Amino acid sequence: MHKIIKIKNLDCAACAAELSEELNAIGGISDATADFINQRVSLDYADDEALSKAVYAITHFEKVELLEGGAPKRERHLKEILSIAISAAFFVPALVMQLLGCNKWAVFALFLCSALAAGWQVVWNVLHFRGLSTFLDENFLMTLAAVGAFAISEPLEGAAVMLLYQIGELLQSVAVGSSRGAISRLAALKSDSAILVEGDGQRETDPEELKAGDVILLRSGDKVPADCVLLEGETSLDVKSLTGEAILREASAGDSLLAGCVNVGSPVKARVERPVSESAVAKILDLVENSSAKKAKPEKFITRFARIYTPVVVLLAVLIAVVPPLFQGFDFAKWLVPAIEFLVISCPCALIISVPLTYFSGVGTLARCGVLTKGAVYLDELAAVKVALFDKTGTLTEGSFSVSKVVGGERVLLLAAAVEKNSSHPLAQAFARTQTDLSPSQVKEFAGMGLSAAVGGKEVLVGSLRFLRSRGVEAAPADTLSAVVYVAEEGKLLGHVEIEDKLRAEAKGALEALGRAGLYRAVLTGDAKERAEALLKGLPLEEIRAGLLPSEKAACAEGFKARGKLLYVGDGINDAPVMAVSDVAVAMGGLGSDAAIEASDLVLAGDSLAALPKAIKGAKKTKRIVRENIGFSVGVKIALMAVSVVATATGLFALPIWAAVFGDVGVMLLAVLNSLRMRPDLK
Question: Is 594 one of the annotated active-site residues of the chain?
Answer without folding.
Answer: no
